[in-house]
Amino acid sequence: MIHSAILIRPPRLVGRDSDSDYEQQMEPQAPSAEELAVWALQGAIKIRCHNFVFVTLRSSSVRNLYGVFATIKYLSCVSLLKSLYAFKYHADSGKDIPAKHFDLRTEFQRMGVGNADGVSRYWRFSESNRKFQLCATYPPLLVVPSKISDATLTYAAWYRSKARLPALCYLHPNGFSMTRSSQPMVGLKQARSVQDEKLVEAILATSEPTGTPPRFQYERNNIIIDARPTTNAVVNRAVGAGSENMDHYKRCRKVYLGIDNIHVMRDALNKLVDAIQSGDGKGEETVGVVSRIQNSKSNWLRHIANILEGAKAIVEAIDGGNHVLVHCSDGWDRTAQLTSLAQLCLDPYYRTISGFATLVEKEWVSFGHQFTLRGGYLGHPDRFKVTRAASPKVSSKSHMSRRGELTGDSASIASSSNENGTDENVASEAASDFDTLLQTGTSMFGRFATRAFRGVQSRISSAIQAASDDIDDTDPFISEYPELQPNYVLPPAVDSADTADGSSTSKRSNGFRLGRPKHDHETSPVFQQFLDCVFQLWVQHPTMFEFNERFLLDLFYHLHSAQFGTFLCNNMKERSAVDLASTTTSIWAWMEQSNHVYVNELYQGDENKRDQRTIAPNPQFVQYWSAMFSGYDPAFATRQASERSSSGELLSRPGSVEQLPSTSDGHSKLVDELDSIVI
Asked: Between 402 and which of 15, 62, 318, 585 could a Cys-Cys bridge form, CB atoms 3.0 to 4.6 Å apart?
C-alpha cells in the first residue's frame, strides 16, 4: 500500500566547529544525549500510501530512522512478481477460500452469441488466439463476425497496434454491438488494410438481414470512437500509427472524445494528493481542503466528466440502434474505461455484484489491462528519496556569540555586510533588477522572457542549494545503507528467467544503475478512475445498483494491497505463465464470503422492466469521492460498522461511507468538505 516515502535527515547542527555533524555526535565532546535526541527528532520519515493515508514517523535516534526507512524501501520495492503478498496470502489462508473462475464463453453465450437464430447468428467464436499467437494481450477466445475467416483476422491484426484487432465485447439485445481494438498503423504514408476494412464492414453489417441495403441514417450513425484528443491522434502518425482514414470506412463516422493520456492523469492525481496533503502539519488547515484542491488545478473532476461524456455517447448510440467501435492508442486503458462504463449503463446484469465481477474480468483482465505496470507493483526505488531538513536561519550576531570570537578581518567583513546588505542578497537583488527590467516591456516577448527567466533562476537556485548540501556532507549512515542512494536497485534474488515476462538471461545486476527505471513513467490511476466513474453513476442512480459504496471502496483498497491475484499481471498470457488461478486468491471469491456487507438496501433493479434497463450518466453532476480521498481502510470500516450496529445507529444512506472511521476531527472535516465539491 505504500506509494512513496521521504527520509528527511536532521539539519546540520548550527554553530559547531566541525562540519561533520553526524561524526560529532559520536565524539566525547559531543552534545548531551538529550540535545541529540531533540536534534534527531527534527528528522522524519514521511510516507504516502496508495489509499491516501499519510504517515509521519520520528525517532530520537538517527540510526533507527535510517534503519526503518531502509526496511520500508526494501519491503516496498520488490523486483519479482512472486514476491508480492498475494502468493503468500494464498499459501497461508487464501487456499481455503473456494475458487471462483470466470468463463468468457459463458458470458458471450449469455448475450446470445452462438445461437442459431436471431442476429446472434452473425457472430462466431474464434480460437485463432488459443496460444496467444495472434495477439499476446488478447484472451484466447475471441468473438468475430461469422463471415470473417481466421486468415482474414491474421492479416487484420497486423494493421492494428499490438495486433489488437476489432473484437466483440458486448452484444445488445437489439442486435447492435460494441467492439474494441487499438489504433490502426496508418503512419505518414496513409497505409491501409483491406482485411481490416472488411472486418469493420462485417461488424457494421451484423444487424442487417442478408441482402438488405443499408439505410442512410443507419450508415451515418455507426460510430468509430477515438478516445484520444485529435492532436494526439495526428501526432501518432509520426511513429507509424494514427487514426482511421474515413475514406476507406464507408458505413460509419468517427468521433474524437479528447480524453487525456495516462501521463496527464497521473499528474492530475499527484496534484490532487499534494493539495490534500499540503494542510497536514503546515499550518494551512484554515485554508480548507476545498480551496487547496481548487487552487491545485488538478482537473480531476474534469477528467472524470470527460470519461462519463464518452460513455454517454456510446450508450446513446447503441441504445438508439447503432454499432460502436472503441479504441484509444493501444486499447487497454481509456478503451477499457469506456466499454466498461457503457456496458454498466446498458445492461442491468453488470450492475449486480456478480455481474460487476464478470464485467471487470472480461473488459480489464481478459482484454489485457496492464495492472502491474499501471499500479507500479514492482520496482520504483526512485519514489523513496533522502533529503535534509532545512537548517534554521541564524543571525550574524547570534552566530558570533556562539563562536565566541572572530578575527579582525572577519569582523570587518561582517560589519560591511550588515551596513551594505548581506552577501546572500547580492544575487537576488541583481535578479530582481533584471526581472523588473523585463516586466517594463508590454510585449508578449517581454512577458514570455520574464516567465522563462524565473523558471531558469529557480532551477539554478535549487541546483546550487542541493550541491551545497552535498559538499563535505559526511554521513556515516549512508555507507551502512547503500540502498538509500538514488541510483541503487536491489540485485535480483534469483535468475531473471523466473520473471513474469518469461525472459531468460543469466546477467545479474551489481546493485547500481544510472538513469531512470524503464517503467516508472507507465504508472497511472486508470482503474481508479473507472471506480470513481462507477461511484458517480452510483450516486446519480442509487436504486439501480445491487452493490454499495463499501463494495467499490474495498475494490480500490485491494487494487494496491497486492493481496489477490485479480489485479496482478498485464495480460492473460502472463497470468497463464505464472498460473495465477492456482497460486493466488480471487478477490471475487473473497468478497463472496461476505456478500451481505456489500448489498445496497435501496436496490430496486428489475431486468424485466424495459424502462429500467438503460441508465444514462450525467457528466454535469460529478463530485469528489470523499471516502476514497480521505484515506479509507476496510479494517477500520468493519470496526466502525460493528460499533454502529451494536449501538443501533443507522447510516444516513444504506451502504455508504459517510464519514471516515477516524478519531481526528480534521479528518471528518476533510470528508465534509470533499462532499461539497460538485461540478
From this structure: 15
Question: Which grid coordinates are listed for 504?
Answer: 531468460
Phi-psi region for residue 388, left (φ > 0), alpha (ψ -120 to 50) or beta? beta
Map grid coordinates 442487417 to a residue: 208
pLDDT in tens, 260-305: 999 999 999 999 888 888 765 444 445 566 677 777 788 999 999 9
Q: 316 to each of 165, 487, 530, how far by Cα in Å?
A: 24, 51, 19
Q: Mean per-residue pLDDT for 339-345? A: 97
For position 522, what pLDDT does the model report? 87
Would you state the pLDDT for residue 77? 87
Number of residues written out for the chain: 679
- Residue 85: all three cell numbers together: 503478498
Q: Identify which has the larger pLDDT, 515 or 350.
A: 350
Buried b (16+ CB within 10 A) or exposed e, 587-619: bbbbbbeeeebbbbeebebeeeeeeebbbebbb
- C-beta of residue 325 within 8 angstroms of C-beta of residue 199: no
Active site residue 135: no
Measure the CA–CA gap between 386 and 8, rounded to whole angstroms.
Answer: 6
Rounded Cα distance, 292 and 272, in Å: 9
Give a three-class secondary structure readout of 223-267. Answer: EEEECCCHHHHHHHHHHCCCCCCCCCCCCCEEEECCCCCHHHHHH
Could you please report the per-residue DSSP string of 382-448?
GGEEEEEPPPPP--HHHHHHHH----HHHHHHHHHHHHH--THHHHHHHHHHHHHHHHT--SHHHHH
Catalytic residue among 77, 252, 328, 533: 328
Grid cell locating 547: 452493490
- Quote the CA–CA distance of 254 and 553 in Å, as a whole number: 36
Residue 97, CB-side half-sphere exposure with 13 Å CA sphere = 23
Cα 674 to Cα 679: distance, rounded to the nearest angstrom: 12
Q: Which candidate, 148, 239, 258, places its Cα nearest to that of 185?
A: 239
Phi, psi of 171 (to 5 degrees): -120, 115
Q: What is the pLDDT of residues 462-491, one digit of tens each?
A: 555 555 554 445 555 666 666 666 555 555
Q: Whose grid coordinates read 442512410?
A: 216
How far apart (Å, rounded) are the C-alpha atoms in residues 622 and 678?
6
DSSP 42-67: T-EEEEEETTS-EEEE--S-HHHHHH
Q: Cα dihedral angle (674, 627, 359, 300), rounded to 10 degrees?
A: 30
DSSP secondary structure letter of residue 386 = E
Give the cell for residue 193.
Answer: 488494410
Cell (9 digits) for 395? 543571525
Grid coordinates given for 189: 504514408
| Span 393-445, pLDDT tens digits | 544 444 444 444 434 443 343 344 344 444 444 444 444 554 554 444 445 55
Do 231 and 259 contact (CB within 8 A), yes or no? no
- In this prediction, residues 75-80 reach a mean pLDDT of 88
